[in-house]
Design brief:
There is one protein chain. With 200 residues, the chain is an alpha/beta fold. It has a seven-stranded mixed beta sheet with strand order 4-3-2-1-5-6-7, with helices on both faces. The mean pLDDT is 94. The chain is built from nine helices and seven strands; from the N terminus they run E-H-H-H-H-E-H-E-E-H-E-H-E-H-E-H. The chain has a domain of 129 residues: 3-Layer(aba) Sandwich (Rossmann fold), CATH 3.40.50.1000. A hairpin with a 5-residue loop joins strand 3 and strand 4.
Length: 200
């Protein structure tokens, strides 16, 4: 039995923080896990910028409402789910994910939770567990699943390397060059074919 684990942002939907950076005109918010491997450092940086500009959950959710899945992402996910189980493992937050999951046909997602004040200020965040993606993959493996993972960022590499196979999708040149043994794809059709070859 095989289960596919997929990153969300950069693989199925655009990067939320980049979209919010564009909406607010704050270039510092463009920084993502493609740029910063230390997730805690990245989130503390983001929260500091939000506080500085008096921005909260409402403003981010307004931006998310206008984000659509990448062209072809839902068809890819539907085709994949016809073949085997697929789960999205993301470092995003439940407060961000819901509108995006609706547009993707309500796939299963495991993600984190924001801590939000009554006034809507984002004061912190709570991870499901440490090393959320790797820990979840290991948990699937412990109950009899082989895993195949797809991601695009530094924080995906552990889950990609922990499984039966792993693939990079629309990643950066730096990540691709640092991981030349990992197959890297730019189109959903190619990625689906590669996954199907593993399943056969």
């Amino acid at each position: 039995m095989t289960i596919i684990t997929l990153d969300l942002e950069g693989v199925l939907v655009p990067e939320i923080w980049i979209a919010f950076s564009q909406a607010t005109g704050i270039p510092e918010l463009r920084r993502t896990t493609r740029d910063e491997p230390d997730y805690d450092k990245l989130m503390r940086y983001r929260l500091g910028i939000l506080k500085e500009h008096n921005l909260g959950l409402r403003e981010i959710r307004e931006t998310i409402a206008g984000i659509d899945p990448m062209p072809g992402a839902k068809d890819f996910l539907d085709a994949l789910r016809e073949k085997t189980q697929a789960v999205i493992l993301s470092d995003t937050f439940t407060q961000f994910a819901s509108p995006l999951m609706k547009k993707l046909g309500w796939p299963t997602i495991f993600c984190n939770t924001l801590l939000v004040s009554p006034a809507g200020e984002i004061t912190g965040y709570r991870l499901r567990t440490q090393k959320t993606k790797l820990t979840t993959v290991r948990a699937f493996q412990s109950i009899g699943y082989e895993t195949v993972a797809v991601g695009d960022s530094f924080n995906d590499l552990e889950m990609i390397r922990a499984g039966k196979r792993g693939f990079l999708f629309r990643t950066t040149d730096a990540i691709r060059k640092a991981n030349p043994d990992l197959p890297a794809f730019e189109e959903y059709g190619e990625l689906l074919s590669a996954i199907e070859d593993v399943l056969d």
